[in-house]
Amino acid sequence: MKFYLSRLFSKPWTLKYSQFVCLSALYLVIAFNGIFLSKSFIAATLPSQVNWFFVISVPCLLFCLFVLLLSWASLITFVKPVIIVSVLVSSILFYSTFNYGVIYDKPMLQNILETNSGESLSYLNIYVVVFFILIGVIPAYFFFKVEVVGRFRSRLKSFMLLNFWVFLCCIVISVPFYKDYAAVGRNNRQLISYIIPFAFFGAGYKYLRDNYFCPPLAFTVLDKTPALIDSDASSLTVMVVGETARAANFSLQGYSRDTNDFTSRLGMIYFKDVSSCGTATAISVPCMFSRLGRKDYDARLAQSQDNVLDIIQRSGVEVTWIDNNSSCKGVCARVKAVTIDPSQDNPLCDGHYCYDEILVKELARTIASSQAKHQLVILHMIGSHGPTYFRRYPIDKKRFIPDCPRSDIQNCSNQALINTYDNTIAYTDWVLSELVSLLKSSDISEKSLLYVSDHGESLGEKGLYLHGFPYALAPEEQTHVPMLFWSNKLDKPWFNRCVRHQQIKAFSHDNIFDTLLGLTHVMSSEYQPTTDIFNSCSFH
Questions:
Q1: How far apart are the first and last CA of the chain?
Q2: How do strand 458-459 and strand 336-339 relate by DSSP bridges?
Q3: What span, in angstroms and rounded, lies between the C-alpha atoms of 317 and 446?
Q4: Burial class (CB within 10 angstroms; exposed 0-12, middle 13-18, buried 19+) of 201
Q5: Residue 341: what pLDDT?
Q6: Is 78 exposed, middle or buried (0-12, 13-18, 19+ CB in 10 A)?
Q7: From the CA atom positions of the chain, what is the Rg in Å?
């Protein structure tokens, strides 16, 4: 035994180029693409008449495609680095897909790359490390130890023969089942997103192409001369951008638990039918402040033109963005921005995160120091950001127990996970009530607060966790978001009745642009009154 172990770890295996590529492709298919194959099997066996030969052909075709992709990606000479990187990356991708249902398309990759180190580290736990070592590091080490024999000329010959025969196999496999592949592919377009690691590499290519290789677009000023509606009264509008709060867990939505104990006492008006622009912060936040809307949203185009904050600031309103999250995703690039420092000496901060209660204190400081007659303040919460939900609320605000004090949430009981998430919602509700109380105590004439979450969250429904699923396929838990409104004008019966009439209507992040223009009394050529939630209530 000692002899065999010594040989296994010390002496390199010798394989020909074609053998090495085929072995690597086989491992990638078997170890990391079980989810793709199982979903393909389900899709292929839905019809009443199942073509079992087609079902069997799927893993065979996948293996052939992996051989082709690996051989071309390695350019003959770099076969080892390409395969080792593929194995290591695939182990991480497979862990998140298997445990959380994550799909790595371009928006998800953008969300990952725009995540700060604190958020990234929240996903690290012993299970990730063990998983990564067992199916990533150890296999990668064995591939590293393999000696690929043959000089460049013999490898080139092997490369050409391998590609010829594998390409021929692809034709032999796919042509007889063309109708089956076309039908399954057309009706299940999401399947390709489960192919690990090449779906991720494809998303990476698109991200690099769009962000670094496409020429920058000229910046467009949408409205050069917006103006404030004449008024002697001072005004303060607070827009609170929630994080990962889903409507399903709001008692104001009909949820059985009392997660909105504080805001319900304040007479805040809740909107039950609101949908997000995306399923990840990197998309939803810039989209909700953009003129483009969800269907036409394009990150490059949005970055190269005014957002609603630019127009409001240009009209003369003082605009301030206060961030207790990873970043404003470019939305606050041209307005005053304050980022909460989690490393500050403050009992509300732990070095990585600060509780959202700190936003109340920062808002009070901003109001007190401002000399402006009209203000718009955006507060970006950390809210219910997972998977470390337990770090989003202080111990004295824990209402539902037992909770799940760990990041590998799939290993908690479903009830503990829900308890933890509900605690974040209840804490957000308390923070919102504190913000309203602060506004009430201010001597500013017109005061309003609008809260809306950036996206929702999956908590194990349909085997999915967290968020970021492609929008067309995303479950309602990730797209149905809560929205709350308060204003001192709600004391006027006519205005209260009008707003409550609006709460039964369907809205989305597409309404935020014009609603903010209306709340801040800004006249603009970009203003569309039909999408201003409160326009019919003559808020002007």
A1: 84
A2: unpaired
A3: 14
A4: middle
A5: 93
A6: exposed
A7: 27
Rounded average pLDDT over 145-162: 88
- Relative to beta strand 374-380, strand 318-323 is parallel
Flag whether pLDDT at 113 surpasses 90.
Answer: no
Write down the residue that tokens 């899709």 correspond to: 43
Residue for token pair 């111990």: 395
263 in Cβ contact with 484 (< 8 Å): yes
Q: Percent of the chain at pLDDT above 70?
A: 95
pLDDT range class, residue 119, cuts 50, 70, 90: low
**Helix (H) or strand (E) segment spanning residue 186:** helix 178-187
pLDDT in the model for residue 540: 45
Task: Collapse the DSSP code of 25 into the 3-class scheme (helix H, G, I; strand E, B; otherwise coil) and give the result.
Answer: helix
Helix pair 52-74, 34-44: axis angle to 10 deg: 150
Closest C-alpha to 442, from 518, 363, 338, 496: 363
Pairing of strands 269-271, 483-487: antiparallel
Residue 344: band (very low, low, confident or very high) from pLDDT cuts 50, 70, 90 = very high
147: three-class secondary structure by DSSP:
strand
How far is it, in rounded angstroms, from Cα 180 to Cα 194? 19
In the three-class reduction of DSSP (H, G, I as helix; E, B as strand; rest coil), residue 382 is classed as: coil
- How confident is the model over 149-170, as a mean pLDDT? 89
Mean pLDDT of the chain: 91
Paired with 486 in beta bridges are 449
Q: What is the mean pLDDT of residues 269-282?
A: 96
Give Cβ neighbours of residue 371 (< 8 Å, ≥ 6 apart).
none
